[in-house]
Amino acid sequence: MDAIERPRDLPRQAIHLAQAAGLVAVMTVFGVLPVDWASKLGGFLGRTFGPRLGLSRRALANIGRALPDNDEAQNRRILRGMWDNLGRAVAEYPHLGWICAAESGRVEIVNESGVTDLLNDGKPGIVFGGHFSNWEVGPATLHRLLGESLVSVYREANNPWVDRLIRHWRRSRRAVAKGAEGGRDLLRHLNRGGHLGILVDQKLNDGISVPFFGRDAMTAPALARLGLRFGCPLVPVQSERLRDARFRMTVLPRLEIEDTGDTSADVLAAMTRVNAMLESWIRARPEQWLWLHKRWAN
Q1: How many structural domains does the chain have?
Q2: Per-residue pLDDT for 211 more than 90?
Q3: Does the residue 295 lie in any domain?
Q4: Does 49 map to a domain?
Q5: In the prediction, which pLDDT does 15 show?
Q6: Looking at the domain assignment, is residue 217 inside a domain?
Q7: Any residues with CB less than 8 A from the CB of 32 and at least 6 apart, and which?
Q8: How far apart are the first and last CA of the chain?
Q9: pLDDT higher than 70, residue 298
Q10: Which one of 91, 119, 128, 205 counts the least CB within 10 Å of its CB?
Q11: Range list of H helices, 179-262
C-alpha cells in the first residue's frame, strides 16, 4: 500500500520542498542585509504587494467588523500598515538573535521585573500576548530573560520541511507544539514550577464563546483554566513596534482570576477580561495587529 501511495505524494512533497527552498532563499537575502535595511525592504514589499492578495478581503472584513465607525480610507490605511508590519516581521526573522540581545538596545522593556520576578516566587507562571508588531520578538526576549524556566507554545507549520526549518531557527528556545502531546508536556512543566509563554488572540473552533469587539468569538480557554488549576500569575505583555526594527515590550500588572468554585463562569470572566485587554491594544495600534486570522465565526 505504501508503494502505491508514495507516488501520489510526490507532487505534494515537491511543492513542500520548493516552498522550503524558497523560504531559505528569502531568509538568506534578508539575513545578509543590515537589520534596518532588511526591515525597510520587508515593509516595502509587504505594503506594495500584500493589499493586492485575496487574503486582504478577509482582513478588511475583520477591520470593518471590529471598527465599524471607520470609513473605507481609514480601513485601507490600516490594511496597508498591517502588510508593512507583516513584511517587516518576516524580513527581521534572520536578525531576531541580534534584535533581542540585551546589548543591541533594540527592545525597550517597561517593568522588566514584572517578568523576572516570576523566577523568585517558587510558583509556575504564564506570560501571554498576541500577534502584535513582530510577535517573535516578545517570545525571544522572554526566553532570554527567563532562560530554561520558560516553555513557549507554537503551531506546527502545515509544510513539514518548513516546520523543521522554523524549529531549527528557534533551537535556542524551549517550545512545544499545540496538541495533546504538547499539552501533557506543558502540564508537567508547570507542575515542576516552570513558566509558559503563549499567544492568545487566535480563533479556536472548540474553544468557548467570548465577546471580542462586541461579537462572540471562539476563544481558547487554556490560559484561564491553567491559571485556575495551578493558582499561578497571568502576566500580560504588550508588544509595540516603535520604528523600523525597534520595539517596546510593556509588562502589565498581573491578571488575577477569581475562583468562585464555578470553573466555567470563572474561565469565561477571565477570558472576557483578556479579550477586552487585546481590544485596547488593537485600538491603540490597529496596523500592528495581524488581521488575517479567521477570528469570528462568520
Answers
A1: 1
A2: yes
A3: no
A4: yes
A5: 84
A6: yes
A7: none
A8: 40
A9: no
A10: 205
A11: 180-191, 222-230
